[in-house]
Amino acid sequence: MRILLFDPEVGGHHLEYAGHLARFLRGRGDDVVFTTWDGTTISRDLIAQHSLGEVRHLGPQGSDRLAWIGGWPLTRARGMNRCIQLARELDADVVHFLYLDRSELGLLASLSLQPRPSAIFGTLFWPYFVHEANDNPGIPKGLFHKASAYALGRLLTEGKMTGLFVHSQRIRSLLIGRLGRPAVGNKIFVVPDPAKSMPTLSIADARAELDLPLGLPMILFFGGARPDKGPDILLRALPRLGGDWLAVFAGEPGIIGNIEADECRSKLPHPDRLVTRFGYVSEEDASRYFGAADVVVLPYRHTFRGTSGVLRRAAASGKPIIASDVGDVGPEVRKAGLGTVITPESPHHLAIALRDFLAAPDSFARGIESRAIEFAQLNDWRVLGRAVRDQYLRALA
Question: Distance between CA atoms of 198 and 309, rounded to whole angstroms?
């Protein structure tokens, strides 16, 4: 098969995800082309680190003035259109939009103006247009979400899109209920959000390579400091902790940075116990941070509705997790026995869970490593690749 993979984003979990799928497909003899917007030198260097096969760039993403609502709907429509044109040029058998979130309108517009060139699949990470009872998205965002749900429903029911991949039965059920069309369930497939085997590093070796002190239980927050990931909630919880500990933030700054970290340090009896490594984290250093940690914290907000790549990295490293009960994160931690689930958006409850961990780290982590490794194996990237490729073949048959 000749397969065209498109993702408008290359940061965070995006390229890792694309790399998992491309590596599996290429291993089965498929011809894979990965495409995204032209990027900076940094993004091109990131792309080069993953086994993506042939890479095509669509050109500049366009003016930020187009990014006025809901994730660049006009810019993404342009991307969808160019991808479909490229699929014709390459005579692709399958086009897979790896990050369909907030691009449903763009894809519907593009496919309404031209015939479908091949089997078209999408992956939806978050059911962002499914609102809970206490949600108040506001009028502009609410209208955009309604339009996105309408577009996705039409794409599936009219056969413009062959199938949609999601990462949990919960998300699949939410989508079927929101779209109000039970028949679309036949085109929505649950596949794993992939985990990969992490290099085995002792805590001593990992901390030595990262120049972090030994002898203190280490709390890790990993990834970009986005609002929905609640890094500020962890900062507010740290001054409530007693005893000896080390807290490490590793990832791109966002709603917190050096100013917020320094403010937190001013409230700590030992300011040096809060270590911030803001910026891009290489794949090698990511493995070191998880190897160095004693517990991984996911203090996510209610607005976080999907699965978590950080959770999968922690599981693959055999590390216990303290996580907010949001999206699929809380249910996965609870069901697989990966750690402790807490009330979201509560520095108080997070501090209680951290104090429980600090009081008896060995007891807190007992039995979790084996369960975490089993969870990672069930969500292995090869399981994802096999499930996705099977649906490609069924569509082409």
Answer: 13
Q: Are 216 and 273 in contact (CB under 8 A)?
A: yes
Which tens digit of pLDDT belongs to each residue from 240-296?
998 899 999 999 999 999 999 999 999 999 999 999 999 988 888 999 999 999 999
pLDDT in tens, 50-95: 667 788 888 766 544 444 344 455 667 777 888 888 999 999 999 9
Query: Looking at 118-157, which runs of residues are DSSP E strands?
Result: 119-123
d(CA 18, CA 136): 33
Q: Quick one: DSSP state of residue 281?
A: -
Residue where the block lists tokens 């609502």? 69
Give the closest residue to 104 by CA, choosing from 168, 44, 184: 184
Residues 6+ apart with CB under 8 A from 295: 217, 218, 219, 220, 319, 320, 321, 322, 339, 354, 357, 361, 364, 365
Segments forming the whole domain that contains residue 290: 203-378
For CA atoms 280, 282, 283, 284, give the dihedral sign.
negative
**Residues 373 and 385 grouped into a single domain:** no
Domain count, the chain: 2
| Nearest one of 274, 276, 329, 320 to 300, comparing CA atoms | 329
Query: What tens digit of pLDDT does each residue of 327-357 get?
Result: 999 999 999 999 999 999 999 999 999 999 9
Q: How many degrees, rounded to 5, is the angle at CA 394 between CA 392 and CA 397?
A: 110
Torsions phi, psi of 395, nearest 5? -65, -40
The enclosing domain of 112 has a CATH number of 3.40.50.2000
What DSSP element (H or E) covers 392? helix 381-396
Alpha-carbon radius of gyration of the chain: 21
